Model the fold of this input.
Amino acid sequence: MDSYLRMQEISKSFPGVQALDRVHMEVQPGEVHALLGENGAGKSTLMKILSGVYQPDSGEILIEGRSVQFSDTRAAEQAGIAIIHQELNLIPQMTVAENIYLGREPRTKFGLVDFKAMRQAAEAELQQLQVRIPVQARIAELRVGEQQLVEIAKALSLHAKVVIMDEPTSALSETEVEKLFKVIRRLQQNGVAIIYISHKLEEIFAIADKVTVLRDGKYIGTCVVKESTAQQLVGMMVGRELADLFPKEKVQLGEELLRVEGLTVRHPSQSHRNLLEDIHLSLRSGEILGIAGLLGSGRTELLMTLFGASPGQLVAGKLFVRSRPVELHSPQEAIHHGLALVTEDRKAQGLFLQLPVQWNISIAGLRQVVKRWVLRHRLEKAMAQRYIDQLRIKVPSLAGAVETLSGGNQQKVILAKWMATTPSILLLDDPTRGVDVGAKAEIYHLMNQFAEQGMGVIMVSSELPEILAMSDRILVLSEGRMVAEFSREEASEEKIMTAATRTKAA
Ligand SMILES: Nc1ncnc2c1ncn2[C@@H]1O[C@H](COP(=O)(O)OP(=O)(O)OP(=O)(O)O)[C@@H](O)[C@H]1O
Ligand SMILES: [Mg+2]
Done:
């Protein structure tokens, strides 16, 4: 039987890189087909070709045996192909409903935009995902995870035959992933084909029927998921044996680097709500402190407040760095006291997308490359190159703009940028979001090294296996409060989830 959708011999190059080299993929109705590969393997590029964002240099796309060409995304949508992009594509100043129906707003009989119908339709789409996001809110007011859910709702509202999900869960918490999986299974029953990109192998084993693996722009193979093992897939992906993924090493803990007492932060607009309430924590030299909690539990807000960039209003709390009381009113002060923050949202906070890679890496560590007030290009380059090698960042050139890197490689550039500041307290917000298994292991390795050198690390993560494996201690947040603390030995996925889902009322 011929496939519903077939991509054959697809090639695409960009200046300095052959992103795809004669790649194949076939998809059937009602199938969840995973696309797997390391950062920069070409997954997003292949999907951008399928959804009309890019045109291939050569190769063909066939739908039900007929050759099709998509000059733009609208053309692909009309052929029944919708995509949820890895780098979110929403317009920040517009509302949730406007974003979902952008360019195809429901009209009244007078030809005007029917805002009421649009709101209701948007509400219905979000309802399907079982999420509560006000459709009148502007995208800019939402957190990354919520924006991701809006992007998902938008793609679903097209009622496409093929839905491409490019790392849809990278900013979602476990409960939201569950909800998304339910939606995927429902789509599947209705004969929709889903192409699912994720670096999380557990997800692929949980949801996918088939998996196609790419490596360095080349087609490696397609397997039935049920008949495959994780080791096999990783082997296909990286083409080499991989060392232990979680290399946690035991480090002797030293002096207290950071202490927080009674930290309370009020919501910026809703004065009756606190983003954070009465938080106490301490971090010692050599320690990795994990912070778990659902989306919206205050994890990101906590890190931002510690970094002097609180999204709300600081109403109470004391902060001590090496036992000295400090007040952090700005990131500059925080950096001065030896803090560094790797954010979850690389688009908004982490990177200057249009600027060269080397500049992005050295920007925060300028102290090291500025000598006698002159930015020394050679030093800047050497420093950038060192981190590129260490983290195996895949870049065509140091002078190339960051926006041309694959998503995972952009994440590595952010890490490199903050490492270059040689901080003593490193705050990591979902540091391995969108990073492939090989690079993940490298990042964990670096975290160990940092701890060994006496740095203290606070890591927020939605991935419980990562928190469990790397943390010396784990704090759980729920609705802005600390609801539990576990030592490395006593923690388990179940205990953390139970604590995280406990609400004030319960
Ligand atoms: N617009 C562009 N201009 C130049 N190079 C690009 C562009 N888009 C992608 N590339 C390059 O093509 C290669 C494949 O990138 P792609 O984004 O498809 O990788 P990916 O498999 O999606 O990786 P990730 O898991 O990190 O998202 C990379 O080397 C990337 O730098
Ligand atoms: Mg990608």
Remarks:
- The first helix runs from residue 43 to 50.
- The mean pLDDT is 87.
